[in-house]
Amino acid sequence: MKPSWRKPFGTFLLLALIMVWAVAAARAIERYPALNHPLVYIATGIVWIWLFPMKALLRWMETGQWRK
């Protein structure tokens, strides 16, 4: 059985995307007062879910296909 390069590459990509999200959320938090922090986290979380769909990345890592 030949090992796939998709899992290590996908893991690296996933970690890189998490770091980008964390930096973006931290920079956004700096700009708003403390009461708005939950709203910023919700907004950046929605961007994370819709712009960087992790389900497709994880499916690609497992099967090699972006869609079913």
Quick description:
The chain is mostly helical and 68 residues long.
Q: How would you classify the helix and strand content by structural class?
A: mainly alpha
Order of helices and strands: HHH
Number of separate helices: 3
- Fraction of residues in β-strands: under 5%
Sum up the overall morphology in one term: elongated
Nearest-integer average pLDDT: 81
Largest sheet: none
Cα(first) to Cα(last) distance is 24 Å
Quickly count the domains: 1
**Beta-strand segment tally:** 0
How would you explain this protein's 3D organization?
The chain is mainly alpha-helical and 68 residues long. It has one domain. 0% of the residues are buried.
Labels describing this entry:
single chain; 68 residues; mainly alpha; 3 helices; 75% helix; 0% strand
Question: How are the SSEs ordered, and which strands pair?
Answer:
Elements: H1 6-31, H2 37-51, H3 54-63
Helix pairs in contact: 1-2, 1-3
